[in-house]
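Figure 3 (text version): structure tokens given as input.
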């Protein structure tokens, strides 16, 4: 009888631990889902604020109004001799529907040291270029067309190869940018139902 009691107690303890472990996994899954939801909202808010900042430039505002959609990335660039840049952002149609969370990365060689944070914005002239971009099939070939002055004014804005590309520094300076050698791909983790 004592063996049966010990076995029964051990079995109940095991079942309790399994139940607690399963509950912990459910709690971890819920925390992970909440964290992803918060991260998505943070990226959407960053995108909205960045587009509002870019609208302060009248030529950029006209392109935003004409664009099929846009992508906005919160980007960090840094290094010494060998440089790199990377960021996470979101691409969406002009109406804001079906946001696609994306990553970007670039590497290169240059002189300089330290880190720089900036917002990287791509405006898409038409649906074809936008769809290739969100599918990860688009390769950056646009080059810088103009650089902003100290106040970020007087950018000559136009679409080049179906895109207009800008960056906004932490100091608020707006300039058209170069995407040669930059790679973009959809985020498996941030896009709902993927990964």
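Below: residues designed for each position.
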């Amino acid at each position: 009888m004592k063996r049966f009691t010990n076995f029964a107690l051990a079995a109940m303890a095991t079942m309790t631990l399994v139940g607690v472990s399963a509950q912990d996994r459910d709690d971890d899954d819920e925390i992970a889902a909440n964290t992803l939801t918060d991260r998505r909202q943070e990226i959407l808010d960053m995108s909205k604020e960045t587009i509002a900042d870019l609208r302060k430039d009248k030529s950029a505002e006209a392109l935003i109004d004409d664009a099929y959609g846009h992508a906005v990335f919160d980007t960090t660039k840094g290094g010494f001799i060998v440089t790199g840049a990377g960021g996470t952002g979101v691409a969406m149609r002009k109406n804001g529907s079906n946001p696609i969370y994306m990553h970007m990365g670039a590497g290169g060689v240059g002189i300089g040291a330290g880190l720089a944070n900036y917002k990287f914005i791509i405006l898409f002239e038409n649906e074809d270029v936008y769809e290739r971009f969100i599918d990860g099939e688009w390769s950056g070939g646009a080059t810088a067309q103009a650089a902003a002055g100290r106040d970020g004014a007087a950018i000559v804005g136009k679409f080049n190869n179906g895109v207009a590309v800008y960056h906004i520094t932490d100091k608020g300076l707006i300039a058209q940018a170069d995407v040669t050698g930059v790679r973009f791909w959809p985020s498996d983790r941030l896009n709902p139902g993927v990964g």
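The longest strand covers residues 69-93.
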